[in-house]
Amino acid sequence: MNNSHLIKTEGLYKKYPMGPTTLVALDNVNLNFKKGEFAGLVGPSGSGKTTLLNILGSLDSPTEGSAEVLGEKVENLEHKEAAKLRNNHIGFIFQTFNLLPVYTVYENVEFPLLLQNISESERRLMVMDALEWVGLSDRADSRPTQLSGGQSQRVAIARAIVKKPALVLADEPTANLDAQNSHNIMETMVKLNKDLETTFIFATHDEKVMKYLRRKVYLDDGKIVKDEVIKHELSKE
User: Fold this and answer.
1) What is the C-alpha separation between 32 and 69, in angstroms, rounded?
2) Based on the structure, what is the number of domains in the chain?
């Protein structure tokens, strides 16, 4: 793989049999992402953006073509190999937060680290660093039920970036948040992108997210219809 490319897809198709017909969710997608990008897969519901995000995250495999992510061809990975790629190098953020209600904020953020060979003292440093990045170090002992929607999503971000992954995939991360919380969440992710050089790829049709993106890849009916780089100041600091 070209070292400048974190992700490269070639002739990517995803097809689902639907009775006598076939639904083509992704249609000949050719796409590259470089390290440090802050990009979005943009399009209406059903355009294929979540399907593509799931393949890039090795949660799904293409029907045809190739998706190379961090030097690994997703279509060739066994289940355990795909899980290892996700556990070590990819963070996920979803619109529903997916926090475990019986665990504290600290334990929710620590959870991905339990799958790795990391000492308890090192885990503690990593968790508290992640909570500090999202401004929630004072809520480490709280339960998810004691948090607002915005705070819950910030915990989800901390969990996604605690292992300092090369890639974070975010599926409609602000869909359940109001404008102010969405702004705060996006500012947090812009800062993490800058400070950690983590690559962020969003699947979204939310204008609150799109105005922060530095690149927009537009999908419609599973095809890329436009790919534009945006030049503007992202954060007022």
Assistant:
1) 10
2) 1
